């Protein structure tokens, strides 16, 4: 069995870890699957394809139960008495999403004695303690590519919103005001601006392609260069040194995974070296930047605008400083959970569950932890 082989290999590689005393589990027999999603509430019935919610549970309940599996869905994931905690002791599979993340800590992994598989319905598995998952012989996988178009389109929208100083104009309209000067003094064209993406993976590459028609100067920093043909197509230039690239940029977009190396990468010192008035878009992860440093720089005007849909933690508390800092265009975590994206990551999750039940391998690009080894982007 694929999952059994993965567990055995992990145990051999990490036999010194105390967590591996749980042993190896077979994929045979009835399984308990727990899914953690956000609630749709009154919006549940407005769209039959609104599947990434508690109410619809990715649309896989009938399929799972017809095969004899137990499927529990909840949005209650925080604190010692939450619904998720009640099921940790006997679940086999946990499905989570980046939009309403269940933080899978080392402590929770130790409690989940039967846990074999952690699935992310979407992209980004940093809400899981990946090192602890690897040491426990677990498999972690996500639906790679399921919402890259959705996020790239959202990033382009946010760039334009910031460049054109759109939100103050919108607020004038709903407040009954009319003050063109109050908007125009900070509104620019995107054409000719230098845009740099930190990370040029699937989302970063799509963004570069979408920015090409705007005649921007495009830069990118990544651990590996993109395909030469795409470089020629987009005109994007590789910057090996991040600190050399950042001061050149009028607009910075974060498209890199959250790891121990990238956590807090845009800190007070780096921000101080950016162009005054720089615009920043972050749909990657909130913890990539120093929360208070961003808020302070927006207040001082050193950052001319900050937009994104990722926070730390999520959901963001009511007193989070980004809610109240000036020149921000923040939203809840929505960019990757469009209806189109939900249908893709629901289908991908079902496919991986089906493979898991049959003991088959997942598509290689979907693995985040496999046989005790982390995917390169998380190392």
TrEMBL record:
Subcellular location(s) per record: Mitochondrion
Entries under NCBIfam families matching the protein: PRK07574.1 (NF005750)
Enzyme Commission number(s) from the entry: 1.17.1.9
GO biological process assignments: formate catabolic process
Pfam families attached to this UniProt entry: 2-Hacid_dh, 2-Hacid_dh_C
Binding site residues for NAD(+): 202-203, 222, 257-261, 283, 309, 333-336
Family recorded in the similarity comment: Belongs to the D-isomer specific 2-hydroxyacid dehydrogenase family. FDH subfamily.
HAMAP family: Formate_dehydrogenase
Keyword annotations of the record: Mitochondrion, NAD, Oxidoreductase
Record-annotated site: Important for catalytic activity: 285, 333
Subunit text: Homodimer.
Molecular-function GO terms, alphabetical: formate dehydrogenase (NAD+) activity
InterPro entries registered for this protein in UniProt: D-isomer_2_OHA_DH_cat_dom, D-isomer_DH_CS, D-isomer_DH_CS1, D-isomer_DH_NAD-bd, FDH_NAD-dep, NAD(P)-bd_dom_sf
Catalyzed reactions: formate + NAD(+) = CO2 + NADH
Keyword NAD in annotation: yes
D-isomer specific 2-hydroxyacid dehydrogenase NAD-binding domain: residues covered: 157-335
Main location as per UniProt: mitochondrion
Organism of this sequence: Eucalyptus globulus
GO cellular component: mitochondrion
Protein name: Formate dehydrogenase, mitochondrial
EC class: oxidoreductase
Its job: Catalyzes the NAD(+)-dependent oxidation of formate to carbon dioxide. Involved in the cell stress response.
Residues engaged in binding substrate: 123, 147
Residues spanning the signal sequence: none
Lineage of origin: Eukaryota, Viridiplantae, Streptophyta, Embryophyta, Tracheophyta
UniProt domain D-isomer specific 2-hydroxyacid dehydrogenase catalytic: residue ranges: 64-361
